[in-house]
Please model this.
Amino acid sequence: MNRMITRVTIPTLVRIKPGALARSGIYLDRMGHQRVVVFQSKGLPNGIIDLLRGALADSKIEVVAWNEVNDNVFEHAITFFRELHDRPTAIVAVGGGKALDMAKYVAFLGKLPFFSIPTSLSNDGFCSPQVSLTIEGKRRSLAAAMPFGVIVDTRVCAQAPRSLSLSGVGDLAAKFTAIRDWKLSFHNTAEPVDDFAALLSDGSVHAFMASPQLDETGLRQLATSLMMHGIAMEVCGSSRPASGSEHLISHALDQISERPRLHGLQVGVATYWMSLLQKQSSNDIAELFAATGFWDIVIEDPFLLPEWLEALDKAPSIKPGYFTVLTLPGSRQQAIDVLNSDHKLRKCFKE
Ligand SMILES: [Zn+2]
Model:
């Protein structure tokens, strides 16, 4: 019977509020951490770095090493892991996705608790059990552990470029098409759907859609909703609740595009496109994108249509055996037809 028990790891400490960064030393200290290794994104504003340094100093937390991260290369993560001398008791990362992923992987290898401090909410990676690293130039999703602590300073995130928060909105919207793809897989291949994970994912996006703002209050909900995506993935042990055909297209774009764009901007447009193909939720997604300004930022700098058509062809081969709407016969031509006939979608592209 033990095989039937669902075991999941969720963050023990969660603080999502204005001023949380300045209190991070207090949170670490309360958890008994006095020696930490810090990873930060290269080029992070000095004000943010000073806040963290001050917070750690105020709580007399020793920084064993302070690393700047400029890439998400797997081999560099291994080097950081090798350099983990002077046993720290926790790993702390502040900044964007690459620094968070590198630190999360180093913490996973070192079996150390990881404290995730995103300074923008551009995707759901700040609280997920996976990392995105490149191995020999190819982007890979690797298993890691959930963060022990998630500290989101909504005042800091509100100062990030608006495009980053909108990227988070795009990544959040992916739930609509991802869950639909999961159910399609169930009907076509009998892959089981984890009901609770699907519900968590569903509830998370609707909570943000009830008041889709990008001010401090809205970002608090966006952070919470993105975090629930990560936890839904942990609950079912796969990326199914948050990643379907729309993510396959985005991953294909990352490989072929001359100028890959923010993950969530690619994913958001692909989500709307795939929803038209799935014939579900397109109006809800369009309304969410209109209310937040997602459409505007995409139309300001449209995507290249030929690259997206190539990505459509390549998408099913990104994860062989991963059943999505794009696996269905005739889906490629139908996808092109809906793209040509939907004026909102057409405006996202240039020839
Ligand atoms: Zn994503």
About this structure: The first helix runs from residue 24 to 30. The radius of gyration is 20 Å. The first strand starts at residue 13 and ends at 17. Residues 167 and 263 are 7 Å apart (CA to CA).
